[in-house]
């Protein structure tokens, strides 16, 4: 049997530096800064929407592109909300648990993520939460 994992470029220090070089060469330093700023802005906007909604609460601060929130009704409602978002087919979140607390993690950081994608996610959340 052929083990295809032995056929790839090794992930040593030099190759990782080459991957970073390609990213910098493609987007440039200002392009990367722009991506990070825009994704942090989108995450802050989503966190503000969550805070303003009476049935949702933030679980952690949102300094970058990760928004963690839960339904105020508890773990069952939070898990149902996460399942409904993932079943939508256009947005995918990470249902998580910390101890006994269930929450949903939304990571905004993919290069093609735009405001309309976050808006569509929010509409899915609103239609599920009510």
Q: How many helices?
A: 3
What percentage of the residues does DSSP assign to strands (E)? 15-25%
N to C succession of SSEs: HEEHEEH
Query: Helix amount, in percent?
Result: 40-55%
Intertermini distance: 53 Å
Q: Note poorly predicted spans.
A: none
What name goes with the CATH superfamily? Answer: Aspartate Aminotransferase, domain 1
Strand elements, count: 4
Largest sheet: 4 strands, antiparallel
Helix/strand/pairing category: alpha+beta
Mind telling me which CATH architecture this is?
Answer: Alpha-Beta Complex
Classify the fold: give the CATH topology.
Aspartate Aminotransferase, domain 1
Rg of Cα set: 18 Å
CATH class: Alpha Beta
- General shape: globular
Strand order of the largest sheet: 1-2-4-3
What does this protein look like?
The chain is built from three helices and four strands. It is 52% helix and 16% strand. A four-stranded antiparallel β-sheet has the order 1-2-4-3. It has one domain: Alpha-Beta Complex (Aspartate Aminotransferase, domain 1), CATH 3.90.1150.10.
